[in-house]
Amino acid sequence: MAAAALASHLVVHHHRLSSFSAASARDRVLHHRRRSSSLPLSAAPCPQHGRPRGARALRRAAAGGGGGSGSSETLPYVYSLEELYRSCTTWTWRGMRVNYLVRGEGPPMLLVHGFGASVGHWRRNIGVLSESYTVYAIDLIGFGASEKPPGFSYTMETWAQLILDFLDEVVKRPTVLVGNSVGSLACVIAAAESSRDFVRGLVLLNCSGGMNNKAIVDDWRIKLLLPLLWLIDFLLKQRRIASSLFERVKDRNNLKNILLSVYGNKDSVDDELVEIIRGPADGEGALDAFVSTVTGPPGPSPIALMPAVRAPVLVLWGDQDPFTPIDGPVGKYFSALPGELPNVTLHMLEGVGHCPHDDRPDLVHGKLLPWLDSLPAAAAAEPTSRAPAPAA
C-alpha cells in the first residue's frame, strides 16, 4: 500500500477539499452544534424583522472605506448552520435536486462555493449581504445537499449551465454572481456566455484556473508535479484505492490541516468549518463526485474567457493562497487585468488565503459593499428566457 499512501498525500495537496453531502453534515452539526468561535456565532436576529443586529453598521463602515472590525457593532453577523440549513429549499434541474437558500430583499446576488464546500461556507457573509440584497446561495450538483447522480461526469461547463438556468428559472432578475475558487470559474464561464443584462456584475474570490490543477500547465510547480497528478488519476480509477484515499482525505484531522494550510487567518479554522466541509462524506455518490472532479477535464481557462465578460468585475485576491498563488500564471493574469480591461477592479487582501469570504469576511465586505453600491441600476425588465439547454 505504499503507492496508496503516496497518492493519499498527493490528493490532499492536489486539491483543497473533497465533495461531500451536507445532508448528513446537517444532522451532525445540529446534534453537536458548536456556538463558540473567533467570530460572533451567537449573534441574534432583530426580533422585529428577523434581521441581524450590526449588519447595517458594518455596511456603513465598509462604505466609508473601513474594512476592519474595531468594535462589536461592526462585526459581521454569522448565521448558525441550523438557521441556514432550515432555510434551504430545493429546485429541480434536469431531473436532479439542487439545494439552495434565499435570504433578504433587494437586488439579487448568487453565492457560488468552491470545491468541496456548500451553502454553509457563506455563513459569515449572508447576514451582512442580505440586509440590502436578496442573497441566493446554491449547492452545485455533486456538492453539499444537492444530488450526486451515479455515473455523472462533472465539468466546469455543466456547473456554469446550472448557474445560468438557476438565474433564468429561479431568480429571474439581473444578478451579481459571487464565486470562490472553482465557483469563481463557473461564474466566469456563465458570465462569458450570458448577455450583459443577465449577469449584472461578477465578483471573483481567488478564481481557480480549472476544475483541477492539471489546467495550470504554465506554472513550473504544476509541471514538476504533473506526472504525480496523472498517477493520482490512475490510482483513483481503481475503486478500492479510491475508497481508501477518500477515507484519508475526509479524515477530520487531515481536513483541518488542509484548511489551516490554505487560510491566512488560522482562527477562522474552527470545528464548525471542518464539519461544513467534512459533513458526512458517506453520502451516496460522494466518492464518485470526488473522483470525477479530481480526474476530470480541467475545463476552459479564465484567461481565455475574461475578455468576453462585459459586466463590471470585482476581483478580490488573498495573497497567501497556496493553490492559486499571486505569482502563478492565473494570479499574475488577474493582478494585471485592471490595466487591460476597464470593467475590472482588483483588491489584494494581505494575509488572506484561498477562501477570503470565510478567512477574513471583514476585509471582503469592506471592498464588496462599496463596489455593489457603485453598480448601475439593473434594468426593470426581466431577462429574456433562453432556449432549454440540451440534456446532460
From TrEMBL:
Region Disordered, annotated ranges? 33-71
Pfam families assigned? Abhydrolase_1
Biased composition of type Basic residues is found at: 50-59
For this entry, list what GO says about its biological process.
chlorophyll metabolic process
Residues annotated as domain AB hydrolase-1: 107-361
Molecular function terms in GO for this entry?
chlorophyllase activity
Q: Which InterPro entries match?
A: AB_hydrolase_1 (IPR000073)
Record's Gene Ontology CC terms?
Answer: chloroplast
Q: Which PANTHER family match?
A: ALPHA/BETA-HYDROLASES SUPERFAMILY PROTEIN, ALPHA_BETA-HYDROLASES SUPERFAMILY PROTEIN
Record-given protein name: AB hydrolase-1 domain-containing protein
Annotated source species: Zizania palustris (Northern wild rice)
Q: What is the lineage of its organism?
A: Eukaryota, Viridiplantae, Streptophyta, Embryophyta, Tracheophyta
